[in-house]
């Protein structure tokens, strides 16, 4: 499918609006972010109904997304004046008469490509940051959630300034859209597509943020509180039916507590989702708190994984493609280099590998691509320090699960195969801002003019040596 001429026209109009300076006004930015917050309040039920029809996502999870955006909007409104002011830079001996600062400036026209798994928060949080920074925006919503995308398009284009902000719901790929001359691209989605987008924008040197997937590992040490660790891992693995970029993909557990941990995971899932049905049988499928897979093809993909490892299933394994249901499933994995360890599962299937100790877990983790997050459950300062020093990832979460994404100012992002760039809080504003280094001279002392202009005399060389030695001495004292 070729890009419609209207999208080219939309971008051209947005570039003209940006050049007019309309989006630079702080009050304008605040008013547009306020309208995003108002949508979350006034159309809350519309968004819930739309996403339920698309996804069968538990209502509480949808409300969490909506509440989060409301909070993000007011965080931006309340801090925008401070964020936009920039920061002053300290002077040195040579520049003592200058005012030095680092001041944020909007990039211009921004493309935001949002995924389907958390379609409200992954579209509107970057949107808020891009508005706060003063950009015009084209927001591409996922065609996998058509009812929600149509509703959000209607609400955004009705309530926000449609000269500055546009929404696309048509099934154009990121590669197609990034052929247009945007000034910045923000993409959330798979590593495979992210790599293609990066190749496209790099040809035009367009800056980009890539929030990608990652086969996020977890290590459970023998000194951890096993029941607490199991509940937190079971919860994050089943949240949104495991369709979450920062969920635990697989677990390495110390051999001393391996069986206790597996039993605790099973007990946690049963306590979360079991519903008693006739004849006193228990059935997770009836639980209103257990979400569904986004589509039948994705369900079939997970069903194939379960079939491949069916002889290693410890718990679960039930599927229903027509209902897009996959039961939380525990697999005992003896091969740390198997496909379900190396690749992101993106579903409620949890492989568990028994290891000798933290050293073996770290060695396996470091053999694979750098993940979005690493999860660690241990009370040992030594073990924690080893993970801090010897592993590499976008983030490290210690003794927690889902709540690692809750702090509003804690930066979120990957490294290598799991992405590049950060957002959340001021980092979202920073992502969509180009920081300009400003040097403003108050006046220049004649002596300095004489020092830097040729021809150079022995006297001037001696003065330069004096300046440099004092500067060096000052730097050493600071160190």
UniProtKB/TrEMBL annotation:
The keyword rRNA processing does not apply. Residues 21-437 form the Aldehyde dehydrogenase domain. It comes from the Eukaryota. One of its GO terms (biological process) is aldehyde metabolic process. The active site is at 211, 245. Keywords: Oxidoreductase. Pfam families: Aldedh. One of its GO terms (molecular function) is aldehyde dehydrogenase (NAD+) activity. One of its GO terms (cellular component) is cytoplasm. Signal peptide: none annotated. InterPro entries: Ald_DH/histidinol_DH, Ald_DH_C, Ald_DH_N, Aldehyde_DH_dom, Aldehyde_DH_NAD(P). Belongs to the aldehyde dehydrogenase family. This is Aldehyde dehydrogenase. It comes from Thelohanellus kitauei.
